[in-house]
Amino acid sequence: MNAGHFGLATGVKAWAPRVPLWALLLGSYLLDIIFIILYIAGGIESFAPIDPAHPTYGGVIIHAEYTHSLVGALLIAAVAGGLASRWWGRRGGLVIAALVFSHWILDLLVHRPDLPILPGNLGNLPLLGLGLWDVPAVSVLLELVLCLGGALLYYRRASQLPTPADATPSSQRRHVLTASSVTALLLLLVLVADILSL
């Protein structure tokens, strides 16, 4: 779901013009960044292929009892939003917090039941996950919609920006189209990399 997270972040730029795109992209992936740190720091969190002999798109079970627990994701989102509000104001902080938590929502859609409710899976409550990875065509379609939708929203917002004094309207349109096309291409390349990383 890497491409889907990034596609959503790109689309959110249309509603949060003051927040830099890099911060939106970072926010959309923050849970996985912390997961990677915990994985490297002695396997506190980990993942395992379902069938190592036949790897597939999304064919993993993730053991992310802290970063990808419902409460853990909400706490990380709140901290990230609080920090972001120092640089981009209250609205920017709320956007970053929502984007960080959107990672958990999207993972809920695609993951098999491996998302705990409480950090460390306290109370041994049922694990969550709707399992769209078991239907790869639907999962890939969801990511494709997020990527193309995000790129389209990014293009529409950039098209509405005022033309700088030193640019002509045609050069501005060309610049916007180029930036949006490159963004869409990069999102699609991430999606292809996800699919081919078997």
Write a structural description:
The structure is a single chain. By secondary structure, the chain is mainly α. The chain has one domain (2-196). It is 63% helix and 4% strand. It contains 5 helices and 2 strands; from the N terminus they run ααββααα. It has a two-stranded antiparallel sheet with strand order 1-2. α1 packs across α3, α1 runs parallel beside α4 and α2 (21-40) crosses α3 (70-110). It is globular and about 60 Å long. It starts with a helix and ends with a helix. The model has no long low-confidence stretch (mean pLDDT 90).
Largest sheet: 2 strands, antiparallel
Find the count of extended strands (DSSP E, 2+ residues). Answer: 2
Number of domain modules: 1
Computed CA radius of gyration, to the nearest angstrom: 18 Å
DSSP strand content? under 5%
Structural class computed from helices and strand pairing: mainly alpha
Low-confidence stretches: none
Q: How much helix, percentage-wise, in residues? A: 55-70%
Please list the strands of the largest sheet in the order they lie side by side.
1-2
Mean pLDDT: 90
Given the structure, what is the number of helices? 5
Outline? globular
SSE succession:
HHEEHHH
End-to-end separation = 14 Å
Task: Write the SSE topology.
Elements: H1 2-12, H2 21-40, E1 46-49, E2 60-63, H3 70-110, H4 136-159, H5 169-196
Antiparallel strand pairs: 1-2
Helix pairs in contact: 1-2, 1-3, 1-4, 1-5, 2-3, 4-5
Properties at a glance:
mainly alpha, two-stranded antiparallel ribbon, 4% strand, globular, 198 residues
Task: Tell me briefly what this model is.
This protein is mostly helical and 198 residues long. 63% of the residues lie in helices and 4% in strands.
